[in-house]
Design brief:
2 domains; 7-stranded mixed sheet; Beta Polymerase, domain 2
């Protein structure tokens, strides 16, 4: 990670970088304080233009339109088939408001759709169900976790999804719709909603595997070469796992609420599959907590390793200083300029003093080795 993107390491401990991370953990309010509930405010655009796409299918046929208009989507509401209408981009509030009016969505639902950063939640509105899920992906170019809000509305014969940008994790779901004889084509819209939610949760594993691989590489470097660069990468990885944890932690409560729901839009047969999504989400949350503990442990291990190496250096320097203290004392005694010093007149006094200093130095070295300090 560091060799490929050195600028990330330089910026990891930068206060401005930390502020950006905190901005991902604490979202800034889009709606002005005091505004009426249900007021729609366009979020910052993340795509050039809003794009509509729909699938309309039943067991024996399917239809796909990647460049649909609002009017073409409205026709699907009255058909007996199952329809999946997807909206990429949330900044066109007029389009979203028009769809909300036609499909009878509550103003608070429309407000949540156009306000990214919502917690994962499940709400029942009688004729339809509203679900918010975080979609996560790993950006290999920047080595960061990219989070996106997915809003899902389940009706009697349709599913509406609203995404912030192009690209998602639903390629497999689309292929199942195109495949004749697939279970998805034989079930209702509630099973389609389950398939979409399951795809989102399954993709969390891909993100966690990427973070886990990076953690393993850093663990080897902490043990072999705990450089300052390693510590910076650990902090960067720790911040990313915090973003993941904040996004998916509410999933347990939300999916538990879905399991307990007795709404007629969720059939008993589909509820059985929802249990599997709940189990996967619990495993993901456990994996996130484990990775968080491992990364925190690596930070502690790095600090302990650096401290141990520092202590080893200090021990060597202390031993060297201890050896030279008596030698310095002896040299200082015979470096004084007194006139009457009996040893100064000895013919072999200089060599005798060097010998005494050598014996004292070697004696201290042997003593330190016996104590295990060397």
């Amino acid at each position: 990670m560091s060799k490929k993107h050195p600028h990330l390491i330089r910026d990891a401990l930068n206060p401005l970088h930390g502020a950006k991370v905190m901005g991902r953990l604490v979202r800034r309010a889009v709606r002005s304080p005091g505004a009426a509930p249900g007021t729609l405010v366009a979020p910052p655009p993340k795509v050039e233009r809003v794009r509509l796409r729909f699938f309309d299918y039943e067991e024996g046929r399917w239809e796909e339109n990647e460049k649909a208009t609002v009017e073409e989507c409205f026709v699907l509401k009255d058909l007996p088939t199952v329809s999946w209408i997807n909206v990429d981009g949330l900044h066109d509030v007029q389009l979203i408001e028009k769809m909300g009016t036609y499909f009878g969505l509550h103003p608070l639902v429309l407000e949540d759709i156009t306000t990214p950063g919502q917690r994962a939640k499940f709400e029942e509105y009688g004729r339809y169900l509203y679900v918010v899920l975080p979609m996560l992906a790993w950006d290999a170019e920047r080595d960061v976790v990219v989070e996106e809000q997915l809003s899902l509305v389940l009706g009697s014969n349709y599913v509406l999804t609203f995404q912030e940008r192009y690209g998602d994790v639903f390629t497999g779901v689309r292929e199942r719709i195109r495949t004749d004889g697939s279970r998805l084509r034989q079930r209702g819209p509630d099973y389609l909603a389950y398939a979409l939610m399951d795809a989102v949760v399954d993709h969390y594993y891909h993100v966690l595997e990427t973070v886990g691989d990076a953690t393993e590489r850093l663990e080897e470097r902490v043990l072999l070469d705990p450089a300052e660069e390693t510590m910076r990468e650990l902090h960067t990885l720790k911040r990313e796992i915090m973003v993941v944890r904040r996004s998916i932690w509410p999933l347990r409560e939300m999916l538990g609420t879905v399991q307990r729901s007795e709404n007629e839009l969720l059939t008993e047969r589909t509820q059985l599959f929802m249990r599997d999504v709940y189990d996967n989400a619990v495993q993901v949350i456990d994996a996130v907590e484990s990775l968080r503990d491992v990364i925190s442990g690596l930070v502690d291990l790095y600090l302990s390793t650096v401290s141990f190496r520092t202590n080893e250096v200090m021990k060597v320097l202390t031993i060297m200083a201890s050896i030279f203290i008596p030698l310095t004392f002896m040299a200082g005694i015979y470096g004084m300029n007194f006139e009457y010093m009996p040893e100064l007149a000895f013919e072999w006094g200089y060599f005798g003093l060097l010998g005494a200093m050598f014996v004292v130095g070697m004696g201290m070295v042997l003593y330190f080795r016996r104590k295990g300090w060397l």
